[in-house]
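User: New here, please read:
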Amino acid sequence: KNICVINLFIIIFSFLSFILNFGQSENIDSKVTFVDGKEINTKIRFKVNLFWSDLIDESSIAYKTIQLIDKNGEISKTPSINFNKIEFIDLKNKKRVFIRMPEYDGLVELIYAGKIKWVRYYYPHGYDRSTQQADHFYKEGFKMVGLGLFSNSRKKLKELMYDRPDLFQLIEQINYNRLKDEQLIEVLKKYDE
């Protein structure tokens, strides 16, 4: 009786693992620029969240290999180091741009490009391989500045924008515990004025 229960558990677990790993994906139209400058329009296979079908897993293109699908439906796995830029509209109808930067192993999402460049780096968690993210800011003449759980984000942003003290009050008003991209983009746009 115990052997039957164990076998049943193994079968159910195997089936669920198969569904989670292989059943949830979407092919998204993308514009791809390779490091040699060649541009193509193709489809890229993205992993999709099991519970929210419009939520893609950025790790599908951020590191390792990217699955390109040609017009005939043929899939080719290409290392992310071969790409310079990938642009697409995600399943929430939001334009996304991923670029190559020498500081990173894979591609990073370009959130904002102005006097201060904001990129988001996606990487696998060391324990469970879930996708993690880190926000980094670049300004000419400064080293990279990262915002994170254990950093004083207000202080770091003020250091980057030292020449615009009129924005310090706006920086103070941001809720960094529930940070929305639009809030920081608003500050970065004002900095560019």
Notes: The first helix runs from residue 2 to 22. The longest strand covers residues 25-34. The mean pLDDT is 83.
